[in-house]
TrEMBL record:
Gene3D superfamilies: Winged helix-like DNA-binding domain superfamily/Winged helix DNA-binding domain
Entry keyword set: DNA-binding, Transcription, Transcription regulation
Organism from which the protein derives: Nocardioides luteus
Residues in HTH arsR-type domain copies: 1-110
UniProt-listed InterPro entries: ArsR-like_HTH, HTH_ArsR_DNA-bd_dom, HTH_MetalResp_TranReg, WH-like_DNA-bd_sf, WH_DNA-bd_sf
Protein name: HTH arsR-type domain-containing protein
Source domain of life: Bacteria
PANTHER family (UniProt xref): TRANSCRIPTIONAL REGULATOR, ARSR FAMILY, TRANSCRIPTIONAL REPRESSOR SDPR
């Protein structure tokens, strides 16, 4: 695999997907990510570096800790709209990782309201555009309002969405 991973290939690992979710609402060091996800510091650092090299994380700051310098990472979730489509291989790796991560998250589901929807159908383009815009708005609303894990007054939630126009092939 190339030294510099593509965005989707870098995010196409269940652990790295969890890191991106974790770093949406807070800036954390590798040690803090390791504690939150029950990893070794070395393992957390390795995956954080891959995500940073792919441009998915930004360095939000640095702090001195016990004679060293710890980087604080944040997920740059708003991606460049001009980046172009991913390769089919990268897209498949990312989709499989999302599916695997969704199974893990589903096991953690608490009692309460939930929406599960799966659809492959034909609709008018205007309806499709409205659905696309609503899903994008919901995703942005959650990302923009994410808080650090276990913040008082928050609940742990999941939104996994994959919405796209289908080709005519079977």
């Amino acid at each position: 695999m190339d030294e510099k991973l593509s965005l989707l290939r870098a995010a196409g690992h269940p652990l790295r997907l969890r890191m991106l979710s974790l770093l949406t609402g807070v800036e954390l060091s590798a040690a803090e990510v390791a504690r939150e996800l029950d990893l070794t510091h070395a393992n957390a650092s390795y995956h954080l570096r891959l995500l940073e090299n792919a441009g998915l994380l930004v360095i939000a700051g640095e702090e001195r800790i016990r004679g060293g310098v710890a980087k604080r990472y944040r997920y740059a979730w708003r991606q460049d709209p001009d980046a172009g489509p991913p390769s089919p291989e990268d897209d498949e790796v990312h989709t499989r990782a999302i599916a695997e991560e969704l199974v893990r998250r589903r096991r953690l589901r608490a009692d309460g309201p939930a929406i599960v929807s799966d659809a492959e159908m034909w609709v008018e383009p205007e309806i499709w555009q409205r659905v696309h815009d609503l899903v994008q708005e919901a995703s942005g609303l959650l990302h923009d309002n994410a808080r650090p894990p276990r913040t008082e007054g928050t609940i742990h939630v999941n939104l996994t969405a994959s919405a796209f126009v289908m080709g005519d092939g079977e």
